[in-house]
Predict the 3D structure of the following.
Amino acid sequence: MIYYVRHGESEDNIYNIVTGINDVALTKKGLEQARKTAKELKSIHFDACYISPLIRAKQTANEILAFHTYLIPVYDERLKERNYGKANGFKKEDFKFDEYENRYKIGYKSSIKGLESVEELLKRVKGFFDEVKNKHKEKNVLIVGHGGYARAAYCYFNGVPKNGNLIHIEIENAKVMTFNFPENELSK
């Protein structure tokens, strides 16, 4: 089973800033959220652990790993948050409504320079989870990452929403989503 944990609250989360690949730390509340999640997961035996190399994910993972000292974490670049290009570091309200609402829609042609498309994100997620599936299909795997990435991970396991827009797939800070490896069109 996959245990996907989104990082705890970061400074950018408080100020409604598009963080993307920017490296920002957790807030005091974010560390507390991570500690609470760590306690919830302490009785689970994990066979492997993959973590985004961004500091907010590392800080969250460190709280969980305190209860799983036997694990050797693997920091994987493919787990980084979606790259929002020129929008990294901007407040969400600075987006035009169309850009904001459609930023997770398949096929949407954004005017934001450098924005990783949804298709590119889904491809990156597929490559990562296909590898995890081949190595750890019947095992418990801890993954610590980001909210935007979580949307695409959800689609890998459950399929893309019929309207092609991932915007309404949400995971709160320091919450856990669990997945098993089904045979669907994305995981094949």
Remarks:
- The radius of gyration is 16 Å.
- DSSP finds six helices and five strands in the chain.
